[in-house]
Design goal:
Radius of gyration: 15 Å
Strand order of the largest sheet: 1-2
Oligomer: single chain
Strand content: 5-15%
Number of helices: 3
Length: 87
């Protein structure tokens, strides 16, 4: 389920005012135009984001190659931090 379907489902089916997002639901966390579309959809549905879950945020793994890959995820995810998503 992409983020736009999630927003529609949360608002229209469940009648909630807040949404939990998960990083695979967003196609990009660095594309400003895309993030503005997400924000506009949230605003249009009077929704706030109360949680943003990130898979792969655990940095430790006994395998050095996997650990290196996981550490590479963090900077990209941090670029999305500090965005004003909700009301």
């Amino acid at each position: 389920m992409d983020v736009f379907h999630l927003i529609e489902t949360i608002k229209c089916r469940y009648h909630l005012n807040a949404v939990d997002m998960w990083n695979p639901q967003l196609e990009s966390i660095t594309d400003e135009a895309y993030l503005k579309r997400v924000k506009a959809a949230l605003d249009a549905n009077d929704l706030i984001v109360n949680n943003y879950a990130t898979d792969g945020a655990n940095l430790w793994d006994p395998d050095p190659e996997i650990r290196k890959k996981k550490c590479g995820i963090l900077p990209a995810e941090r670029q999305g931090c500090g965005k004003s998503w909700g009301g």
